[in-house]
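Justification of resources, computational component.

The compute hours requested in this renewal are based largely on the per-chain cost of generating structure records like the one below. Each record pairs the submitted sequence with a full structure-token output. That output is archived, and it is also reused by downstream analysis tasks.
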Amino acid sequence: MSALVFLPGLICDHAVWQSQVDDLIQQGYECQVIDYGNADSLAEMARITLDLAPESCVLAGHSMGGRVALEVARQAPQRLSHLVLMDTGYLPLAPGAAGEKERAGRMALIEKARHHGMRTMGQEWMQGMVLPQHLKDTKLCNTILDMIERKTVAQFEAQQTALLNRPDATEVLRSLSCPTLFICGSDDLWSPVSQHEAMAELVVHSRVQVIAQSGHMSTMEQPEAVTQALTEWLEITNAPTERYPGFNQTEG
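The structure output for this chain reads:
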């Protein structure tokens, strides 16, 4: 049974994966969540991951963590037995006005964090990250805000820098040979289902799993559904009598 290595997204930590880790450990899996420290590039985050991860692992990345996972696949594809990419993307910063708008938005959040603190910034950031009805879930929102507050402004700026300088991962996706699962919240406005379907088209042994009633923070908004998607897929792809059945499909 392969070890699972989990990669958090922007200003996230172990809490974003806590439900999955708890359940998978009970099922006998060895689990590890990576901390990027003060790294300010996806390449450096990938090197940290490779230094800490076992020689062979199931690598799962959420949001920015998905981009880190693709960078790991670029640097050391032989280390991956399986790959899970969640609520993420693969293209570089767009040219022209679209890219400048994204840059301005990210810089505005950094300025808010500098002047008002990480938690206040997180309250604004969270608005588009979870479903509107989940914003009424006090426990969920406080867990997300507590997680954000554990990061420093300097770490936030470093990770935003990494994302603004993100590489094009199209060729990495085309090169993947391990079983690959794409998971996306049904209502993820930042990284929509269509984007995951486009990525899956580039990967031979792939499947898209849509998590109903979820925004971008799918691991926390619908933790049981995400864990079920992971465990069922791992059972299928590890079955000795099957070889990547049902791939290049979208399931919801």
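The chain has two domains: 3-93+167-251, 96-162. DSSP finds eleven helices and seven strands in the chain.
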